[in-house]
Amino acid sequence: MRPELLDPVTDPEKLEALIPLTSKVLELHEAGRKYEDVLADIARLTGRIVSRYEVAAAFGGSDGMGFARGLLVDWERIPADLSRQELLEAMVMVCTDASDPIRTSYLLKCLALNTGDDQISDLIYWPDQYRGGKYEGQELEPEKILEIALRSGRKDAELDWPNPAGA
Description:
Layout: H1 3-6, H2 12-31, H3 36-46, H4 52-58, H5 64-72, H6 84-96, H7 101-115, H8 120-125, H9 142-153, H10 157-160
Helix pairs in contact: 2-3, 2-5, 6-7, 6-9
């Protein structure tokens, strides 16, 4: 599997430098104090402007490390050429390992882009709400979820890869 699928944060040194800043900005936000100077430091380090809205969104749902990791992911450069095996491995990771919410979000974006199914997270987490409840009450394995998403998202997706032993 590609390294960025295992961990979409590809610069551990930048991450280490960013964590104290994101922790500080969340602490200041919680205290109701100003933190524009810390946001400026974050912008210098990441090369992007971080808004107060992003801070508010991270507050309560993330710690300094999670916030830093999310800022370092290149959300605009999601790989669009995953193989069927990579899609399946990504699906298994999403379905079985929730330990890294940033990686899970990244993989969900990869899966949505590569299957063409922008509702794939509903299929994984809330199958009873996916496309009118068609899968209500069903336990879906990662392989089956991928098959459904490919069929729903890209009608010709199955033609792109050989059909391995009954999949």
